[in-house]
Design goal:
single chain; alpha+beta; 3 helices; 3 strands; flat
């Protein structure tokens, strides 16, 4: 029973069970869901606490941790090919 309680922490999770790579999930001051890869479980717990404190203090978090909107590589190759032919 104690193992289950220890493994269930709000905002800290293992994306692939048994992988040993832990992630955090929290909501920023604007209500946007954020996820970050932390590494070990102890680091994830500390990072989650740090991020929640930053949210409470209203500190500005990075706008984008990872850029979205990048084209898949295959699309870029096809577009390059079409431009080369034209």
């Amino acid at each position: 029973m104690k193992d289950r309680e220890e493994s269930k922490r709000r905002g800290v999770f293992e994306k692939i069970p048994g992988s040993g790579i832990w992630w955090i999930r929290y909501f920023d001051q604007f209500g946007k869901k954020r996820r970050e890869k932390a590494g070990s479980k102890s680091v994830a717990i500390k990072l989650y606490g740090k991020r929640k404190q930053q949210v409470l203090e209203g500190k500005k978090l990075p706008e984008l941790f990872r850029k979205h909107g990048l084209r898949p590589r295959s699309t870029t190759i096809v577009l390059s090919f079409r431009l080369a032919i034209a």
